[in-house]
Design brief:
The complex is a heterodimer. Chain A is mostly helical. Chain A contains ten helices and no strands. In chain A, about 70% of the residues lie in helices and about 0% in strands. Chain B starts with a helix and ends with a helix. The chains are: A mainly alpha, B mainly alpha.
Chain lengths: ~200, ~160
Amino acid sequence: MDEAAEEALLRRVPTGDDAAFESLYALYAQRVRLAAWRFCRRGDQIDDLTNETWCRAYRLRPDYDPTRPFFSWLCGILHNVWREQARKNAADSSDTAADDMPADDLSPDDVAAEAEMLAGLNDCVSRLDPEEQSLVRWRFFDGEPLRLVAQKLGIAEATVREIRLPAVMVKLQRCLSKKGRADRFFSFSSAQAGPPFQVISGDEP
Amino acid sequence: MTRNTTQLEAVLTELGNARAAGALNAVDAGRLPWKSPVDAGSVDVVIARIGPRRRLAWGMAIAASFTAAVVALWQFESQPNQIPVTNENTNALVLASRDAGAVNDMPVDVALVLEDFNQDGRIDGEDIQPYLDRVRRSSGEVGTDTSDFVRKLLGS
């Protein structure tokens, strides 16, 4: 969907246009799931958080300002839902209170940016060649050492480390740049005290 | 390796974590949460969200209700000779579904007018249609005999 079409949908949201809201749901549902996971870090809470977020967004749609980014608005609602749920969980069991409460510096805008980044990266990975996708899956999703990845691919470990992996990284960076998300993400990362995500350890060159 | 590449690797690892948690599972765009906020899946989540103390309280309440129901059923079934017809102040008669043998032990005036028409060992609503069929075969005047049957069934 191009930008103009999406803007047209957004303008129809405050008017109570159900069809427009349903189209936006199809467009943003995946990103809202990612944002929910960034808040709670628990797979078993994603469905609950996202369902409640969409229900509230539907009720609050007359209040939506079309000049404001829709996803940031959704993440604001999601943030409230998550904090309320964390408080309920804390009331039910003081043991889990510390784990369930979100970090103070986890703002809806930051989470929205990270979710956008992850969704964009996921799309870029899906556009890689099958062998490159396998490399990414084994190395980064499954956390396997380069030696095992090379064995599975049937090529030398040095080839994976020096040629294949750098080539995949370049492809992904170009893809993200095309989406206009690479600069945004890397500037966001630099603004933090450290990288927002943990770098996998092991046999790094 | 450049800083950007290292960061990209970190984000790829994070993407793997998100995938493992199910954050990237396919979304059914046809199932709109605001139109069906409670389904089987969300009920499971709600149950999982309930704290341990509430879960325990709910569990005890459910167990107590279940136990009470079992005891009531057991007491009811353990008294086969109890007359299943109760005469309330309003004179309305309530007929419980009972074994044919138990009905045979009823007071004579009630037991005589009721029969196990479908031969299933019980006298209940299932006997009405076989009774009607029998009447239809014999006289063809269902309406009169049906009201007669109902009158007999109610004991009036």
